[in-house]
UniProtKB/TrEMBL annotation:
One Pfam family linked to the record: RrnaAD
The organism of origin for this protein: Christiangramia crocea
SUPFAM superfamilies membership: S-adenosyl-L-methionine-dependent methyltransferases
Organism taxonomic ancestry: Bacteria, Pseudomonadati, Bacteroidota, Flavobacteriia, Flavobacteriales
Designated name of the protein: Ribosomal RNA small subunit methyltransferase A
Keywords: Cytoplasm, Methyltransferase, RNA-binding, rRNA processing, S-adenosyl-L-methionine, Transferase
Any one GO molecular function term: 16S rRNA (adenine(1518)-N(6)/adenine(1519)-N(6))-dimethyltransferase activity
Reactions catalysed according to its record: adenosine(1518)/adenosine(1519) in 16S rRNA + 4 S-adenosyl-L-methionine = N(6)-dimethyladenosine(1518)/N(6)-dimethyladenosine(1519) in 16S rRNA + 4 S-adenosyl-L-homocysteine + 4 H(+)
Length: 277
């Protein structure tokens, strides 16, 4: 793996006027240096030499990433933040991407290279970011960052919990998910109305999904759309034969099944779901 010298930059200035937090972008700028450094330390920096930070804002987390032995890139949709980073983080020149992460093809920046993703994610698009990571999972061995606490907990939750849902199953099918720590509203400007939570995802290596991926996503989403019903009822729209629906697994509710059991369920359904192959 190619080594990079630690990259240093100008100190972060906690200047409320430098970049205005924009409500429509869901911006809440982290102001606590200790937490920023702690988040930067959540990545292992092992097995890859590139990191992409989503939504760096004024760079409080970026500063600590630049001290790591990796090549740091940032992607930011806010033109005011981009200008601030260009003026204050000179070592990022050429690696500040003024784009929408959700709409941008990751391979245009990194081709087929491995890259870790990190960030203090806007609450209003955080789940969409996770689905985008799943889409590019072959390129993303590690992912960590800050979410609304409720969402972070949900992603890492195990079966049997009311919080367990679509994100829990689909993320855990491909990544080992770990909830790390909680962050209070007081360390943000402006402060959000709820606690935040930091999580880490590590890709399961040498893992091959033993069922049709599109069908797995469809089964999970359909099941949880009527989570109070048994799978026998919630999956009626798949038009499965009666003899299959008599299988014991169809008597369960979706939150009772682990991600492994959802894979097994999809394998049972797959022979009858020709359109998804």
């Amino acid at each position: 793996m190619k080594k990079h010298k630690p990259q240093f930059t100008k100190p972060f200035k906690n200047d409320d006027q430098a970049v205005r937090a924009k409500k429509h972008l869901g911006q809440h700028f982290l102001t606590d240096e200790n937490i920023a450094e702690k988040i930067a330390d959540t990545l292992s920096y092992d097995g890859y030499d590139k990191v992409l930070e989503i939504g760096p804002g004024m760079g409080v987390l970026t500063k600590y990433l630049l001290k790591k032995d990796v090549e740091v890139h940032v992607i930011e949709i806010d033109t005011e933040s981009v200008e601030y980073l260009q003026n204050n983080y000179l070592h990022l020149r050429g690696r500040i991407h003024e784009k929408d992460f959700l709409k941008h093809d990751l391979q245009q920046i990194f081709k087929d290279e491995q890259v870790a993703i990190i960030g203090n994610f806007p609450y209003n698009i955080s789940t969409q970011i996770v689905f985008k990571v799943l889409e590019y999972r072959d390129q993303i061995p590690e992912f960590s960052g800050m979410f609304q606490k409720e969402v972070a907990k949900r992603i890492c939750e195990k079966e049997g919990s009311k919080a367990y849902g679509i994100l829990s199953v689909l993320v855990q099918a491909f990544y080992d998910a770990e909830y790390l720590f909680t962050v209070p509203p007081s360390v943000f400007n402006p402060p959000p109305k709820v606690d935040s939570g930091v999580l880490r995802l590590k890709r399961k290596e040498n893992f091959s999904l033993p069922c049709n991926e599109k069908l797995l996503f469809r089964v999970v989403k359909t099941a949880f759309n009527q989570r109070r019903k048994t799978l026998r009822n919630s999956l009626k729209s798949l038009n499965l034969p009666d003899n299959l629906r008599e299988d014991a697994i169809f008597g369960s509710r979706p939150e009772q099944l682990s991600f492994q059991q959802f894979i097994e369920l999809t394998q049972k359904i797959e022979p009858y779901a020709v359109s998804d192959k």
